[in-house]
Design a protein that fits this description.
By secondary structure, the chain is mostly helical. The protein is 52% helix and 4% strand.
């Protein structure tokens, strides 16, 4: 789309619709065979910092809302996945790929259903499995925390490590070392610098103790006051 192009939004938060005007380059093309493309948009959420720790201990409406968001998201992605699997089976897609999708879907379902049962904990598996499932289904995804620089950086680097392990057979130790390397020397430090003027993540030692181990920043990278 050109810079002059703009969209017209309509609908509701639950069912938004956006009309995009084509760029000059698209004018004159035969669009008689154009079709609408449905987009299935979902959001999974799971806090990982000290605020989530306190919420888990206190309970209340916040947790109920978090559970509901994840349950609604899973129902939507499950419906999409079932349609995807049905279509893929008809087109003779590789059975190993379809089996992998079913396994991830089953694991994600189990964690979403277990959110409010037993002792409350941070089910980061929901975030990780949602990412795995999105990639397996050929979807697009964004990850973000409040500032999109600290917890987001930990999540992005962990995901990069998990993808490399899955695709290239890294050991758990090699993956952990690589994730640490990316957090210490990778582009996420530069992202922090562009936001707050220094290549530091906004964690302190107490906060790190309350964050799941997989998401902890190296001590050499923490100390920023701005969030």
């Amino acid at each position: 789309l050109s810079q002059q192009s703009h969209g017209l939004a309509s609908g509701s938060q639950q069912s938004p619709a956006t009309r995009l005007h084509p760029a000059t380059a698209l004018r004159g093309l035969d669009l008689s065979m154009a079709v609408f493309v449905d987009v299935t948009a979902v959001m999974f959420t799971q806090g990982i910092n000290e605020t989530q720790t306190l919420a888990n201990r206190r309970g209340g409406k916040e947790l109920a809302m978090q559970d509901a968001v994840n349950e609604d998201a899973f129902e939507a992605v499950d419906r999409y996945a079932q349609r995807f699997l049905s279509f893929a089976a008809r087109t003779q897609r590789h059975h190993a790929t379809l089996d992998a999708i079913r396994q991830v879907l089953h694991a994600l379902r189990s964690h979403v259903r277990a959110q409010g049962t037993g002792r409350r904990r941070k089910r980061v598996e929901i975030l990780q499995l949602a990412g795995d499932l999105t990639r397996a289904l050929g979807g697009g995804r964004a990850t973000s925390c409040k500032s999109a620089k600290d917890r987001t950086s930990m999540s992005v680097t962990l995901e990069q490590g998990r993808v490399l392990r899955a695709q290239y057979g890294l050991t758990a130790r090699a993956m952990a070392d690589l994730v640490t390397l990316m957090r210490e020397w990778g582009v996420r430090r530069e992202n922090a610098r562009k936001n707050i003027g220094k290549p530091k993540f906004a964690f302190n030692r107490v906060q790190l103790r309350l964050i799941p181990r997989q998401y902890r920043a190296p001590l050499s990278t923490i100390g920023a006051l701005a969030t």
